[in-house]
Amino acid sequence: MIKHPVFPLALLLALAPVPVATTQPVSEFPGEIVLGGPPAYSRLRGITHFYIEVTSTGGATGEGELRNELRDLIELELRRANITVRTLTPTDAADVTPVLHLNVRLDRTGGMGRPECVIELNVRDRVSIVRNKEQINATIFELRRPAGITVEQTFARDMKNRTRELMAEFIKGMKKNNP
Q: Distance (Å, rounded) from C-alpha 123 to C-alpha 51?
């Protein structure tokens, strides 16, 4: 029999589960900023249509025209994927769901005075709060991609290309989880 009082403690520590260092979750999409895990496409299950909203921050040249072009691009990609697009009017913008929202965020404090961009795509839908059954609009899905550093002359083209790539990834993930 073991009579030394330190041995049982050493044995217990040796057999106890050792915490293993975990790495940041890796996204299946290159360049994605992953916050806490991969995008939860399963949250989009049951959605058959979208309202589209496009915004931009940072004051890009030709901002209004670019927003319209990006909205048209998103609508085209959704229609190609047989997803219904409904018209969003300013009077009912706060009440309709689900809304596919694209935001092009421009940061002019980037390196060498050239703007750095991030493209954010999120889906807002009506959800119920469990504790009081209240219905609210909340973001249920989000993708965020750095669009890199761009110059004013190619900014619109670069944003359209990055948006097209982001929509392809979004539709692929949505179709996989929403047959």
A: 10
| Stated length of the chain | 179
Residue identified by tokens 């025209």 is 65
Point out which residues pair with 145 in neighbouring strands. 119
Beta bridge partners of 107: 116
Q: CB within 8 A of 135, min separation 6: which ones?
A: 126, 127, 128
Tens-level pLDDT at each residue, the chain (179 residues): 555 555 554 444 444 443 333 333 444 444 444 444 567 888 888 888 999 999 888 766 567 888 899 999 999 999 999 999 998 777 766 678 899 999 888 776 655 666 678 889 999 888 877 788 888 888 888 888 887 766 666 778 888 888 999 999 999 988 887 77
Contacts of residue 73, Cβ cutoff 8 Å, sequence gap at least 6: 160, 163, 164, 167
Encoding tokens for residue 52?
């589209």
Tell me the whole-structure pTM to 2 decimals: 0.70
